[in-house]
Amino acid sequence: MVAFRIPNMRCGGCARSVTAALRGVAPASEIRVDMERHEVTVEGGADADALAFALRQAGFKGERLAA
């Protein structure tokens, strides 16, 4: 599991954009968004660096959380 805190994820549109960016890297992974905590988790063995890069490309600064 890889988890990120995304401070600038503030609305449903942001959550959809984050999910789409992560799904582009890890299409078979389970992606869960917690809007209250501004966090997203990805389960399924995806590469953390590739996920972080996808978030940056989509305009979101993701801080990786300890697993």
From TrEMBL:
Protein name listed in UniProt: Heavy-metal-associated domain-containing protein
Pfam families recorded: HMA
Source taxonomy: Bacteria, Pseudomonadati, Pseudomonadota, Alphaproteobacteria, Acetobacterales
Location of the HMA domain: 1-63
InterPro entries in the record: HMA_dom, HMA_dom_sf
Native organism: Paeniroseomonas aquatica
